[in-house]
Amino acid sequence: MGQKMELHFNWNFLIIMQIFIYFSYIYINSVLLELSDHILNYILYMCCLSRLPIFCYILNPLVSKAQLSQTVQSRLVSCKILGKLTNKFDAHTIKREILPLVKSLCQDVEYEVRSCMCRQLENIAQGIGTELTKSVVLPELIELSRDEGSSVRLAAFETLVNLLDVFDTDDRSQTILPLVKSFCEKSFKADESILISLSFHLGKLCHGLYGIFTPDQHLRFLEFYKKLCTLGLQQENGHNENQIPPQILEQEKKYISVRKNCAYNFPAMIVFVDPKNFHMELYSTFFCLCHDPEVPVRYTIAICFYEVSKLLNSGVYLIHKELITLLQDESLEVLDALIDHLPEILELMSTGGESSVHDNKLSSLPDLIPALTAAEQRAAASLKWRTHEKLLQKYACLPHIISSDQIYYRFLQRMFTIVMTNNVLPVQKAASRTLCIFLRYNRKQEQRHEVIQKLIEQLGQGKSYWNRLRFLDTCEFIIEIFSKSFFCKYFFLPAIELTHDPVANVRMKLCYLLPKVKSTLKIPADKHLLQQLEMCVRKLLCQEKDKDVLAIVKRTVLELDRMEMSMDAFQKKFYEKDLLDQEKEREELLLMEMEQLEKEKQQNDGRPMSDKTFEKKRRDTKTPTTLPKNIPISVPGLSGTSTPSTSKEIKKSKLIRSQSFNNQAFHAKYGNLDKCPSKSSAVGYTPSVSGLGKTSVISLTDDSFRTRNASSAPTSFSPSPSLPSTSRGTGNSVDPKSSGSKDTQPRKATL
């Protein structure tokens, strides 16, 4: 029974296959010709499953329909099928049936058939092997390269370039190289479409023939490439397009395509001339491509800019000015293409192309910061918000490139303004996350304090509910980037205070965030914060009137009940997360120690030999900075007050740890912030004493957080006398307050 069903299936499939083949021959057109490739692959696959003999049912109609007596469309379909079927037959069938048919179609009277068969020779060569390719395919390609039809010659040239790896050195030097030279010499006299194809394959061609070029041939190909890069630029005379004949306009469009292809092949040409010779051989060409009057050319060279930077390595400083030029380009398409790899490009620029850490900070490129700010403003003024969003995301790399002071005064306030005023939500979120990363790597305590204070007062307690929604987005990013202690210290209370917000959307968004908020707590140190969280959730359950918010609150309560709390001591189930969080806290302390070291160094600048003594002290006290993975780590100053130790050994250890962190931690890839959240910065911990269940005013009592003078602080970051903070090990309760709608005054936390 099974054999009968298989025969029945084979017979039905055979009928369908033959119907398709004859249908393709009769009703073929440009659309079906492309579609037939996919259907033919499926038919061949089904033939293998059904064990049908391909020779009898496909090859016979293929041979009959490829004869000169058939129509042109039938012969075109035969060329397509031959390119797919050659590797399905045995060697004897290929020599006896397939290759004579291929030769016949290569010598067809119609140039369309010859061109189509010529393009299928690449697939046929891969199916018949190297020996038959040299003896059968190569002579046909040589003959077709001298064909009277330009499209046939073009197809032969492209097939030769794609088959360069198949031929050996003798074939390349004695047969292919003369053909390529003749093709290049005649290309300027022929149709511009040949120039377009030649410019597109020139990089691959130079790479495939690199070993057989003589110095004179090498120079000729290089000059030919340079000529193509400026093709059509000499003819520009500033006339109005309406006055130029249509033929000239069409020719100029083809010249633009040629220069665009040259920009695409520029990295390959750097390899061709060797990166050491870039300044002498190709820099002027690169300059012309970056300043080309046409946007597609500049767009393509902007895409290749990262590859060019990698190839130049230590010579990347040569293209600093071109980077500034492309950043200031009037077309946002060029900027969008450049910022795809902007972090990697800036890192190569800052390190000089080497892998070791340098403290260069792009001091040799003073125009970089104005170019970056101008690019952001130009993207913000346009309607292409996706480009603006991507640019803000890429700016997260800046802490690894420039100093924190430059970021604070030139970029940080701009990020805050975007969060406050922009109307596009993805742009606001991108600016908020970049702002959090700027805060994480900021090395000055006063600046961090001002940014935190501004986030709480103008976003968390802002007049507009839209700002309060963005504050919750910022809290989510802070939980992701910073340590648990940092969030609990500064943002826990302002966040849960929004459970009493008068706007339902704010309360709803907070309910979605509450599980992440609870995950930042540790028991028993944060038991008082857990009690306050439970009290706020309980009040939501009892007092919430909005049915949508109430439904979300009920689901959130179930999720909160299922969550397991992390303990102060390391637990097996939370070991990796606790270790990462412990590392975050450790690096936050090291950031503060770096600031203290810098202040000490500045104070000792007036003393003789102070720098040498400072460096010697750091070298003599060098200790490893990696955390042991097998033992719990306790960081001093995480609970209670952060009083510095008086032991000399601890001071030495802190000194060298902060120096090592300065040299290593900041060199981490900015693109891996999501994957490696173990690097963060934070502000110090301040004590606050209050009882559980009692109302108190939380204020900043640490002297290290004193605000700056009004003369030294920027107007955008005006200092405020207090900053809400929560210390682990103490208790505070929140007095619910539901003020702060879109039109009301800013709400202050009364705790």
From TrEMBL:
GO molecular function: protein serine/threonine phosphatase inhibitor activity
GO cellular component annotations of the record: ciliary basal body; cytosol; protein serine/threonine phosphatase complex
Segments annotated as HEAT repeats: 98-135, 137-175
InterPro entries: ARM-like, ARM-type_fold, HEAT_type_2, PPP4R4
Keyword Transmembrane recorded: yes
Compositionally skewed regions (Low complexity) per UniProt: 634-647, 710-727
Transmembrane segments: 12-33
Region of interest: Disordered: 598-656, 671-694, 707-751
Biased composition (Polar residues): 678-689, 728-743
Keyword hit for Kinase: no
Keywords (A to Z) from UniProt: Membrane, Transmembrane, Transmembrane helix
Biased composition (Basic and acidic residues): 598-622
The name this protein goes by in its record: Protein phosphatase 4 regulatory subunit 4
Native source organism of the sequence: Ursus americanus
Name of encoding gene: PPP4R4
